[in-house]
Amino acid sequence: MFRLGLRGWVMIGVDPGCGGINVWAWPGIIANPVPGQLHSWGLMGSLHPGGAHAMLADGSVHFLNETTDVTLLEHLSAMADGSVVTIP
After folding, report:
1. How far apart are CA 76 and CA 1, in angstroms?
2. Which of 5, 47, 50, 69 could lock onto 13 through a cystine, CB 3.0 to 4.6 A?
3. Which of 53, 20, 50, 17 minimizes the C-alpha distance to 38?
């Protein structure tokens, strides 16, 4: 689903609704976050300022801002949930 997530050993993509985009700091887990180094293979991030490119199932590519609503990200990463969303 999202190209940047295809770097883990399970190769299934990422879940941007799990916390957002480019979330480097995780209280209690990562004391000194390093931009570009994600806590988990399932998170979405990039070195692009302000967001990350995402390739959707229809083959289109969109730049999603770090400020994109987490609920919208959850709907974008779900399959066949019946939700109709518009990418800002």
Report:
1. 10
2. 5
3. 20
Distance from CA of residue 12 to its chain's centroid?
Answer: 13
Task: Report pLDDT for 84.
Answer: 85
- How many domains does one find in the chain? 1
Q: Which residues pair with 21 in a beta bridge?
A: 44
Tell me the C-alpha distance between 13 and 32, whole Å: 25
Range of the domain at 79: 1-88
Q: What is the mean pLDDT of each run of 10 residues along the chain (88 residues)?
A: 44 69 73 72 80 86 90 82 82
